[in-house]
Amino acid sequence: MIGWLQRFFSPGAITMFTRCLLTLVLLLVLAAPPVPAVDRSETPSTPAATGAPVTLNGTPLFYVREKVLSYPPTERARLISARLEKLLHAPQVDAATITTTDSDASTDIVAGDLVIMSVTDRDARGEGTTRQELARRFRDRIVAAIVAYRDEYSSRSLLEGSAYAALATLVLVAALLFLKKLFPLLHNRLQSWKGTKIRSLRVQSLEIVNAERIVSLLASLLRGGRLVITLTLFYFYIPLVFSFFPQTQGFAAQLFGHLISPLRSIGHAIGAYLPNIFFILVILLVTHYVIKLIRFVFAEIGKGTITIPGFYQDWAEPTFKIVRFLVLAFAAVVVFPYLPGSNSPAFKGISIFLGVLFSLGSTSAVANIVAGVILTYTRGFKTGDRVKIAETVGDVVEKTLLVTRIRTIKNVDVTIPNSMVISSHVVNYSSSADAYGLILHTSVTIGYDTPWRTIHQLLVEAAKRTEHILELPAPFVLQTALNDFYVTYELNAYTDQPHKMMAIYSALHQQIQDRFNEAGVEIMSPHYSQLRDGNSTTIPESYRPPGYVAPSIRISRPGEAAPTE
């Protein structure tokens, strides 16, 4: 390990780390609480150790087995323990003053005026000794326990515990500083190995995992390792500091128990659950590869490599999503009974609650999904088509099971719920444009004084001059109305560029104006038809013949021929 560390650190850093480790080990050895000697003759495991224990600060000192007067052994032990606790917290009473006194019926253990307990002949016969000897034995244990307790809670003991705690804190800080220096160096070294010692995993020319991904994974493992090491240091540091002080020694054991018990329970639960985990992993693995196979099949259908009569290529992607959802739902149904706590009332209650929430809150979502499926398989439009849905005209940029997104000619994205789409009429300008051509139409109104054949010719010529208008099928004109003062002519022209229809309309209107002006035909409305006599023509000056003069006002009497110019 030292040789490995020398590749990353200087000798001084290694020496510092080694000293920290040695200090921590020495601290653990010195700070370990002494193991008290056990009197085998008084342990409950031996046959003689029957009766009620007399305790001091929770530690059994000896046992009483005989009844005295009306007090059974358990009541005697409780009263003696209470007197000892009172004596323990009376610093004015010196433990050396505890002595024994004889009487005719018993030998008493006393501390000044306080009688701690009385030892009878029956107690002595049960222990196989004399009354005086048994009383001295009990007195020695009481004195030793009181002296040990007071020594343990003395100022010197607290100072020693504080010193050990400070030393442990210094070791912890040194270890954390070392980790703070170690892991950035390891991270930088990993980054420097990218492309050299750490290379992409390849199978021939196929790259499975690139070097960047591997380095990122190792960096994540380093961060996780640093966190685990830091938590481990605190895991040992906190109970260790508690163990240095007699007031908190019990907390150390409790803390260790609280930390280890959950881990032990989790370990047992994981061990018992391993068969179910393997079953779930197998189901997930099979589901993963089934979905990959399904994705491959529908991808080939979408490319046209695989053809199924009656199944269109644009159905491949939405059908794959539906089939994938069904496969995942089936896998969830199979896995559900093997999930931890799936049979518990809490799990069932949560499942029912979530089901009710989903049912109440997903009504519109389900309606949109059903509408999306219907729109997919009725093939009303596909992504990229120029459509008009209600009052919105634009190109379809996205189709999902929930919504349809349209980008208008002004580059505004409009999101329409599928339930609204299916309830509205949809105009598709692109569906037949490639096969038959989209017919663009516009109308002009011309007076009766211009021959209709001339109008037809001018309109067709204007259409043929317009970019993106097809020559075949040829443009044609329809006379849609014979009005009071003019005739309505409708020009119809084919195009295979529905996405440019607005630009084509603009260019077509420009060509109509130019062609009519070149031919000297006015596009006029009836609003000024009665004021035409004596006014200039509406044709722009650039299209008028040279020397054009507006005609004068002509007045004729009834029955006379109109004057000629």
Automatic annotation (TrEMBL):
Statement: the UniProt record of this protein carries the keyword rRNA-binding: no
Matches recorded under InterPro entries: LSM_dom_sf, MS_channel_C, MSC_TM_helix, MscS_archaea/bacteria_type, MscS_beta-dom_sf, MscS_channel_2nd, MscS_channel_C_sf
What is the protein's major site of localization? membrane
Top-level lineage group: Bacteria
Q: Where in the cell is it found?
A: Cell membrane
Keywords noted in UniProt: Cell membrane, Membrane, Transmembrane, Transmembrane helix
Identify the SUPFAM superfamilies for this entry: Mechanosensitive channel protein MscS (YggB), C-terminal domain (SSF82689), Sm-like ribonucleoproteins (SSF50182)
Q: What residue ranges are annotated as transmembrane? A: 161-179, 227-245, 265-286, 322-340, 352-378
- Residues in domain Mechanosensitive ion channel MscS? 365-430
Keyword Coiled coil (UniProt):
no
What is a single Pfam family found in this protein's UniProt entry? MS_channel_2nd
Mechanosensitive ion channel MscS C-terminal domain residues are: 442-523
Give the bilayer topology: Multi-pass membrane protein
Q: Which family does it belong to?
A: Belongs to the MscS (TC 1.A.23) family.
Record-given protein name: Mechanosensitive ion channel protein
Q: Which organism is it from?
A: Geotalea uraniireducens
